[in-house]
Amino acid sequence: MKTAQSRQKSYAYRRRRPLEFDVGDEVFLKLSPIKSMFRMGKTHKLSPRYIGPYQITEHKGKVAYRVAIHPELSHCHDVFHVSMLRKHESDPEERMETTTVSINEDMSVTVESVQIIEQKERVTRGRKTPLVRVL
Fold this sequence. Notes:
CATH topology of the domain at 17-90: SH3 type barrels
Order of helices and strands: HEHEEEEEE
CATH architecture of the domain at 17-90: Roll
Number of strands: 7
Shape: extended
Distance between the termini: 65 Å
Structural class: mainly beta
Strand content: 25-35%
Number of helices: 2
CATH class of the domain at 17-90: Mainly Beta
Helix content: 10-25%
Strand order of the largest sheet: 4-3-2-1-5
């Protein structure tokens, strides 16, 4: 019985990784408990799995962290388990400006239109497929 337990323990520990964060680290939040709010009209496959980065403000217990989240997410609790967090490794060259998405009270999103620069049709296997490049 002990050999079977130790074998199963070794199998389980292969995939485990020690996750520890320091105060001030940037992390991504996993969306699974609040998924329905963030899908915003996208299909489940295309919805983002993580949002962020957010900064850790406090270490609570062994595996819980307090995260400074946006005021838009004030209805969510700000303490998360370590399994809900993913370390953000920032590269200053790859930093992009993000646009803020405003969520209305009825959980709908207003979408702004973009300008189309170029448009042409491509024929592949008898089908016409529009190619659109936007600004």
